[in-house]
Design goal:
InterPro entries: START-like_dom_sf. This protein is of the alpha+beta class. Helices cover 28% and strands 43% of the residues. The radius of gyration is 14 Å and the shape is globular.
């Protein structure tokens, strides 16, 4: 299993960060511009990734103010689990840890590790930008 992690400190209360991430409609704001055909509701999303195809993900688990786990809702090219873990730094700041766990063979690992790391870093950066600009 390939594990890719990124973290960010968001200057917002834990409850606010969790509420944003718990609604899958908000995750579109965390996606790079090359993601197309986005469709979502509070629990599930569907989108197209260039050179990979369509991906449908759903929120599998919500632990209030602690964790959100996202898994494929339909068959994916490889086993995948995304998780957001949150921890209060103080009353006005939250550490957000984003983890991508993907079951990649050696060739896929060589090809996908860099883009997945960029995606993880992009999402934690966008989370901070989105919540701190409000």
């Amino acid at each position: 299993m390939t594990i890719i992690e990124s973290k960010s400190t968001v200057n917002q209360p834990l409850e606010r960060v969790y509420a944003f991430l718990a609604d899958y409609n908000n995750h579109e704001k965390l996606m790079p511009e090359n993601i197309t055909n986005w469709s979502s509701n509070a629990d599930e999303s569907s989108f197209t990734i260039p050179n990979m195809g369509k991906l449908v993900l759903k929120i599998q688990t919500r632990i209030p103010d602690q964790e959100i786990i996202i898994v494929p809702a339909e068959s994916a090219p490889f086993e995948l689990k995304l998780s957001w873990k949150l921890q209060a730094v103080n009353e006005l700041a939250t550490e957000a840890f984003f983890t991508i766990a993907a079951d990649l063979n050696m060739m896929m690992k060589m090809l996908a590790s860099g883009p997945l790391k960029k995606l993880a870093d992009f999402q934690t950066t966008k989370l901070k930008e989105e919540l701190e600009r409000i």
